[in-house]
Design a protein that fits this description.
single chain; 171 residues; four-stranded mixed β-sheet; three-stranded antiparallel β-sheet; 14 strands
């Protein structure tokens, strides 16, 4: 043999990208995307689709911060590369509109009377829950227009609190 040459190469494991569980967000607050890390690998988050183009800070790392989202579904891809090998995973972020709750204006009633709240309102909610502090009784705890009934000899302050649960099923 007059001539020979040797080739050396390295076999790398195929990386596995894990973008994490699909997520929900209420009202468009910032969202933290966190993928897995492999030693000596390169990571990248990117937007595949969505109702707008949000700001994706830290896209070239395992952790990215998404801001500027609006209600809708966003599909993000997380890719890991190691040498010439790569893998990707997709995460869906569903953003629901912010709920709005307004319990209505203050009122005065006489002992023994009832008062139905009619100037309250709620938007972008799946359910309503009223709580109260006072000597009387509140009916319609899960309705938009509950009725407060004071006892015959009741006097003093009554506090009604309206809580709305955000949408989580359709946008």
């Amino acid at each position: 043999v007059c001539d020979r040459d040797t080739v050396f190469f390295t076999v790398l494991p195929v990386p596995v990208a894990l973008a994490g569980q699909d997520m929900t967000n209420c009202g468009g607050s910032p969202v933290r995307l966190e993928g897995n890390k492999i030693q000596n690998g390169d990571e990248k988050w990117s937007l595949l689709s969505g109702p707008n183009t949000p700001v994706l800070s830290g896209a070239d790392s395992t952790v990215a911060l998404v801001t500027g989202v609006v209600p809708g579904n966003y599909h993000f891809t997380y890719m890991i590369s190691l040498g010439g090998c790569s893998d990707e995973d997709t995460l869906i972020l569903t953003v629901y509109p912010s709920p709005v709750a307004s319990a209505g204006g203050d009122a005065i009633i006489c002992s023994g009377n009832s008062y139905q709240i009619m100037d309250d309102r709620a938007e972008n909610y799946s359910s309503i829950e009223w709580t109260y502090k006072g000597p009387g009784n509140l009916t319609g705890l899960n309705t938009l227009h509950p009725i407060y009934t004071s006892g015959k000899n009741d006097t003093g302050k009554v506090i009604l609190v309206m809580k709305v649960v955000p949408l989580t099923t359709s946008i």
